[in-house]
Amino acid sequence: MPRPRHCRRVARMPQSNYYKPRGVPLSELEQVTLAVDELEALRLTNLEELYQADAAEKMNVSRQTLGRILESARKKVTDALVNGKALLIEGGTVEVAEGGGKTEDVSAESGRGGRCRGRRGGRRRRCGRSEG
User: Fold this and answer.
1) Interval 13-54: pLDDT, tens
2) In sequence order, which residues have a C-beta less than 8 Å from that of residue 50 and are 6 or more positions away?
3) pLDDT bucket at 102, cuts 50 / 70 / 90
4) Number of structural domains in the chain
5) Residue 2 falls within a domain, yes or no?
6) Euclidean distance between CA atoms 104 and 126, whole angstroms
7) Residue 73, domain extent
8) Positions of E strands within the chain
9) DSSP-based helix, strand, coil % in the chain, nearest 5
């Protein structure tokens, strides 16, 4: 059984979740799926220009994990742009931070709402999946 994934904190869910080349019918396009946490990693490092260590802290992951997330995200976005594919943004196990620290938990990966369970002693949160 694989190790449970840590919650990956994102500032907000994307407003638009689908991008495609103009003038090409959707039915003729291949699709690349970019996870929400991959988009957040790109936003923090490229748009906000944060160092990877700072971006990793904001996302509640290690610096090495952020590096792997970025590598995957860059490959997917480049594939979509260079090869004229549609880009769908969805999925991943994330915790959405809204406003002053209030969180709304989502697990788009399972298709059901997930929850992040806090642990005592200041340990990292791990994402769980709700059963309903």
Assistant:
1) 998 999 999 999 989 999 999 999 999 999 999 999 999 999
2) 44, 58
3) very low
4) 1
5) no
6) 14
7) 8-129
8) 8-10, 18-19, 31-34, 86-89, 93-98, 102-107, 114-117, 126-129
9) 35, 25, 40
